[in-house]
Amino acid sequence: MTKLSETVEINGAGHLAIGGVDALKLAKKYGTPLIAYDVAKIKNQVKRFKQAFIDGNVPYRVTYASKAFSALAMYRLISKEGLGCDVVSGGELYAALKGGMPPEKIEFHGNNKLPEELELAVDSKIGCIVVDNFQEISFLDNILKAKKTKISVTLRVAPGVEAETHKYISTGQENSKFGFDVRSGQAEKALKLLLDNPRMNLKGVHCHIGSQIFAAAGFVMAINKMVQLLKAWKEKYDFTAEILNIGGGFGTRYIDSDEPLPADEFVKQIVKAVKEKIAEAKLKFPEIWIEPGRALVGESAVTLYTVGSRKDVEGVCHFVSVDGGMGDNIRPALYQAKYEAVLANKPQALKEQIVTVVGKYCESGDILVRDALLPVTHPNDTLAILSTGAYGYTMASNYNRNPRPAVVFCENGKDKLVIKRETYADMLRCELSL
Ligand SMILES: Cc1ncc(COP(=O)(O)O)c(C=O)c1O
Ligand SMILES: N[C@@H](CCCC[NH3+])C(=O)O
């Protein structure tokens, strides 16, 4: 298999390039840490997901799970590409609307949607609320009653499928905090409430088994369970789902040994499973919805850092410090996530040393890459960490009062700043001086 570091773009100057733009030029122009997206890669992934449904000749909708990277520029890009998005908070909803996402293409998720968030969703006339629990049904009903209006909903089911992934990002199992459980009868009770509610138009069902999943087996199992459920609900309640939403969670490649199915292959197997199961159950064919987040943006970005201090403990380890860390990428600390590092100023130089790439935060766990094989590094080298497009910026913090990084979109050799670097003053903007 090709090494991930060998798939990066290298320009005539022998530097790493992103969307045709020299990484060193980007680092110089915008400073570091800098998250640089290759826009063509995002567009390509959108196409791969969509095309596989078109080839399967089935009705579908691809919705971008915007928690992976929520930015005005991203909502703009994704809506131009014809996708809707899902949001999981009032803040994401507000950003999606400001980013020009048509409200009817927005889906709202969450296990504890606040009344004011639901109200914003209703007022904005969004396309669909994915109803997650009984309290939400009651909150939403009160809002709809008061406003004398209606909304479309889907019902989120926890299908009892354990995804093979980190336990923090597994969501389909029975003891998940998300969705209505089937075995205990919760899901059926919720169905009855929604069917009886004249203000909620129940369009279908939803499930999501987890994130960073590499194989289709879990999705196929979930489809099987969901269709069994739909069959039972057809027989008992004459309910027909217009939408079967099987969530997101399609994995991406962070390190050489990662081998997730490509986007189109995931879709192919999903379409095949839905076709088979729906035919067996003799149900009306639903529109298949999926919600990829990471798989649309993860591999399209790199984070550029400037190498700073170094600590060599002979015979023990070598630390190479960069000017960012857990504040711009919490994933290694939170999920023990692994990444590949490349020296952007000499990506093809002989890799002769195993080092620990650490950040500048006051935590020993602030490790970005544990065993990075790199050429000997020097201060002011530009170090790139690959595949940082998902859950990097959106999970960023101001820990230790470090400003969040800038974000740039690169395409056809042109770069465009889409998120400015925070300043020290920005970090104090909500504070009151007493
Ligand atoms: C309901 C739902 N949909 C979609 C996603 C997107 O997941 P991913 O970024 O893994 O595709 C998530 C996050 O896991 C989710 O909770
Ligand atoms: N933030 C997680 C994924 C969470 C998925 C959202 N339900 C990650 O970085 O992998």
CATH class of the largest domain: Alpha Beta
Strand content: 15-25%
| CATH fold-level label of the largest domain | TIM Barrel
By CATH, the superfamily of the largest domain comes out as Alanine racemase
CATH-scheme architecture of the largest domain: Alpha-Beta Barrel
The helix fraction, in percent, is 25-40%
Distance between the first and last residues' Cα: 60 Å
Q: How many strand elements?
A: 21
* Helical segment count: 12
Largest sheet, described in full? 9 strands, mixed
Whole-number mean pLDDT: 95
Q: What small molecules does the structure contain?
A: pyridoxal-5'-phosphate, lysine
Task: Specify the structural class.
Answer: alpha/beta
**Shape estimate:** globular
The unreliable regions are none
Tell me the Rg in angstroms. Answer: 23 Å
Overall description:
With 434 residues, this protein is α/β, with parallel strands linked by helices. It folds into 2 domains: 4-38 and 298-427, Beta Barrel (Lyase, Ornithine Decarboxylase, Chain A, domain 1); 109-292, TIM Barrel. The chain contains 12 helices and 21 strands. It has helices at residues 23-30, 39-56, 72-80, 90-98, 115-123, 134-147, 186-196, 217-237, 263-281, 294-297, 331-335, 424-427, and strands spanning 9-10, 16-18, 21-22, 34-38, 60-65, 84-87, 106-108, 128-131, 151-158, 180-181, 200-206, 243-245, 287-290, 301-313, 317-322, 341-343, 353-358, 367-374, 382-386, 406-411, 414-419. Strands 4, 14, 15, 16, 17, 18, 19, 20 and 21 form a 9-stranded mixed sheet that branches. The chain has an 8-stranded parallel β-barrel with strand order 5-6-7-8-9-11-12-13, surrounded by 5 helices. A 3-stranded antiparallel sheet has the order 1-2-3. A hairpin with a 5-residue loop joins strand 1 and strand 2 (16-18). The longest helix is centred in the middle third of the chain and has 21 residues, at 217-237. It is globular, with a radius of gyration of 23 Å. It starts with 8 loop residues before the first strand and ends in a 7-residue tail after the last helix. The mean pLDDT is 95. Residues 67, 169, 211-212, 331, 335, 391, 395 line the site of lysine.
